[in-house]
TrEMBL record:
Keywords: DNA-binding, Repressor, Transcription, Transcription regulation. Residues 15-75 form the HTH tetR-type domain. Residues 38-57 bind DNA. InterPro entries: BetI_C, Homeodomain-like_sf, HTH-type_TetR-like_transc_reg, HTH_TetR, Tet_transcr_reg_TetR-rel_C_sf. The keyword DNA-binding applies. This is TetR family transcriptional regulator. Pfam families: TetR_C_6, TetR_N. It comes from Streptomyces yangpuensis. PROSITE patterns: HTH_TETR_2. SUPFAM superfamilies: Homeodomain-like (SSF46689), Tetracyclin repressor-like, C-terminal domain (SSF48498).
Length: 206
């Protein structure tokens, strides 16, 4: 039996596609923030009861993690497309940075990321592994991009793995400040700081 006494077969038959639920969850976060995302409210959006949602996702934590995984899959496709472009590696590195940094304060994707990070303190090993997989995809792509730039002579020889770790730490720090709306640096200033760091770190010495 599904939650609320509804037969499992009927619940599956009447449920919208999983992606519709995740799209609705992300749209709610974008419009009303995380405080506006409740199982009951989301259920009304997609025509399901909160009990049915809990049957499929087990908990709000799982719903948030699956929504993040869906959003990251979308970003991953965009990231792979830009990394596959022809042209200078430095231009693709800037495109990677532009995709990484939030577009604005309370950016819905970063708002979701921060919430999942916060909840990960009590997450199990499987959930942590899924979060690590998301982080790992960004990291591997950055390492590959740096290695390509080095091999082409666009970047000076550096340890791509170590430099990628530092770049992502810099991006995370700035991105969190922007996502939570701290009145310190706007996005333009953040991107300028990152460009300066990349130039100092990667530019070929005369």
């Amino acid at each position: 039996m599904a939650a609320g006494g509804v037969p499992v077969r009927a619940a599956r038959k009447n449920a919208p596609p999983r992606e519709d639920v995740l799209v609705a969850a992300m749209a709610t976060i974008a419009e009303r923030g995380l405080d506006g995302l409740t199982m009951a409210g989301l259920g009304r959006e997609v025509g399901m009861s909160s009990g049915h949602l809990l049957y499929y996702f087990r908990s709000k934590d799982e719903l948030l993690l699956q929504t993040l995984e869906w959003s990251e899959a979308e970003l991953g496709s965009a990231r792979r497309a830009l990394l596959a472009r022809r042209g200078p590696v430095a231009e693709r590195l800037q495109a990677y940075v532009d995709l990484y940094v939030p577009t604005r304060a309370r950016d819905p994707h970063w708002t979701l990321w921060l919430e999942v990070w916060n909840r990960s303190q009590n997450a199990g090993p499987q959930e942590r592994d899924r979060q690590a997989a998301i982080e790992g995809a960004w990291h591997r792509d950055l390492v590959a991009l740096l290695a390509e730039g080095i091999s082409r002579g666009e970047f000076r020889p550096v340890d791509a793995e170590r430099v990628a770790t530092r770049i992502r730490a810099l991006l995370d720090g700035f991105s969190i400040q922007l996502a939570v709306g701290l009145p310190t640096l706007d996005r333009t200033a953040i991107l300028a700081h990152v460009r300066e760091f990349l130039t100092e770190t990667l530019s070929v010495r005369p």
